[in-house]
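Aim 2 progress update. The chain analyzed this quarter is reproduced below.
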Amino acid sequence: MSTAESKPSANAPEYSPQERSLLLALAHRSIESALNGEKLDIIPPSEHLGQLRGAFTTLHLDGNLRGCVGYIAQMHPLYRTVAETAQAAAFRDSRFSPVSSEEAPRLVIEISVLSPLFPLSPEAVEIGKHGLVISKDGRRGLLLPQVPVEHGWDRLTFLEQTCYKAGLPPGAWAQGATIEAFVAEVFGEQ
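Predicted structure tokens:
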């Protein structure tokens, strides 16, 4: 029996269209409030959105990646995680300069709500279903489940690219690295 058989499924949506819209609007408001130097006061929208969850917020501008930051751990209520990761993706992703007030209204946001991590054998990795975290020697790399789909990677390339993201040699996944997986509910703006 593979470890993935008893783990969460990515098939049935957990979040309603209304909850998804609320979280996407919250991400935009969070970025706008930071640009305006305002404090964002968030009233917990619902008990469901107040559950502790890990999540990533990905920003696109004109069809290109503009930032992506998230938390793997379930440290904060989901609504707070989304607000914080949206600001971090806009202003603290070291790969990009901070989002400007001219860019902010044109951002297209995608949110990935993560399941808890679980161990997974390399053979059980499913493209489009699993996100990966590979760790070894104090280094750790994470790739969301949509990344290999967007790049047309196979399972081996996905494992190698996750190692690369961790700053490890591509074959580290087969040489004693820890492989963990998660599923994600991914939704965004068109």
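The domain at 17-114 is CATH 3.30.700.20 (Glycoprotein, Type 4 Pilin). The chain is about 25% helix and 25% strand. These observations will guide the mutagenesis experiments scheduled for the next reporting period.
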